[in-house]
Amino acid sequence: MKAIVYSALMAFVGLSACYYDHADEVYGNTPCDVSSVTWTNDIEPLIQSQCLSCHQGVSASGGLDLSTYANVKLNLSTMVGRMNKPAGDPMLMPQSGPLANCNLIQMDTWVAQGAPEN
Ligand code: HEC
User: Fold this and answer.
1) Which pTM does this prediction carry?
2) How far does residue 92's CA lie from ligand 1's centre (Å)?
3) What distance in angstroms lies between residue 28's CA and the mean position of ligand 1's atoms?
4) Which of 47, 71, 93, 111 to mutate to test the pocket of ligand 1 (most atoms within 8 A of CB)?
């Protein structure tokens, strides 16, 4: 029984370590610039590089095609919800692990501005 508790604890510590690696990017020396977040310069490239490998075309994962602004706008709240799940959560997107915190903050900033096609 003790061994099981110990391995569960170590598994948790392991996951937390991965999670905090990302936190370093926010609290470290790299500033997160949110002064001029735009669809064209920030959000579209982010989705293209992080989501479209699975979410494009007729066989898009979960039936969700994120290759156009209109589709992104339509699915925004679901997307943001899934992108902000903690590491290890089966609902997290992308599935490989959380985006850099700065990307999440830029996404929030853009949504707060009304998610314009700018
Ligand atoms: C490696 C493939 C892969 C990548 C990359 C990926 N996804 Fe997914 N996504 C899936 C799969 C598979 C599903 C369906 C299973 C599920 O709902 O978890 C899904 C489901 C979703 C859903 C739920 C769709 C619905 O209506 O039920 C959303 C929202 C989503 N992904 C957003 C994103 C976003 C945003 C990104 C980029 C930040 C992303 N995904 C990157 C594979 C991926």
Assistant:
1) 0.81
2) 8
3) 29
4) 93
Residue position matching structure tokens 């925004």: 76
* Residue linked to tokens 């959000």: 43
**Residue 95 beta carbon below 6 angstroms from any ligand 1 atom:** yes
* pLDDT tens for each residue of 20-76: 555 545 555 568 999 999 999 999 999 999 999 999 999 999 999 999 999 999 999
DSSP 25-89: HHHSS-----TT--IIIIIHHHHHHHTTTTS-STT-GGG---SSHHHHHHTHHHHHHHHTSPTT-
Cβ atoms of residues 57 and 65 within 8 Å: yes
